[in-house]
Design goal:
The chain crosses the membrane at residues 30-53, 65-84, 96-115, 121-143. The chain is mainly alpha-helical and 155 residues long. It has one domain (3-153). It is 77% helix and 3% strand. The chain is built from nine helices and two strands; from the N terminus they run H-H-H-H-H-H-H-H-E-E-H. It has a two-stranded antiparallel ribbon with strand order 1-2. Helix 4 (45-53) runs antiparallel to helix 5 (57-63), helix 7 runs antiparallel to helix 8 (96-112) and helix 8 (96-112) packs antiparallel against helix 9 (124-153). The longest helix is centred in the C-terminal third of the chain and has 30 residues, at 124-153.
Amino acid sequence: MTKKGLESIFWSIALPGFPQLMNGKLVKGILFIGLEILINVQSNFNTVIILSFQGAIEKAIAQTNYQWLMFYPCLYFFAMWDAYRDVEGESSPFMFIPFVFSAYFVTVGVIYSSTFTIKNILLGPIWLSFLCLPIGLLVGMTIKKIILWKIENST
């Protein structure tokens, strides 16, 4: 990964669409930012983040509009992958796989966030999603390596 690729991922973490604007993809960047704002507002995401960081998990769950929040991980990781691909190109085959599995596992975290507990501690949509992210990355990177290994050893 180049410095520019890493920079794109970090800017996309800050706000999906920024790297696309920086790379001159104005329509795509504005679309991602607009979708991020729409989903953020409709899901009450900023309020949920604040309440979660303050430890008010039950209030955070009550404030969450899950119908909207479930769109967020897919948008977030797609925008991140798109920003990375714009900079790095297709230099790494199957690079999309870790992003896809991250989006999937974080979405599963959102789905179960209102009921999943660890030692009777309710985690809520923010903390359970955070915990699901490394699992998604690990699964995605492992599957990518297996696919590349199979391709390499089949010739």
